[in-house]
Amino acid sequence: MANVTRSRPLSPHLQVYKPIPTMVMSIVHRITGAALYFGTVLVAFWLIAAASGQAYFDWANWLFGSLIGRVVLFGYTWALMQHMLGGLRHFMWDLGHGYEKNFSTKLAIVTPVVAVALTVLIWIIGTLAR
Question: Which sequence ranges are marked TM in the entry (predicted)?
Answer without folding.
Answer: 35-57, 63-86, 107-129
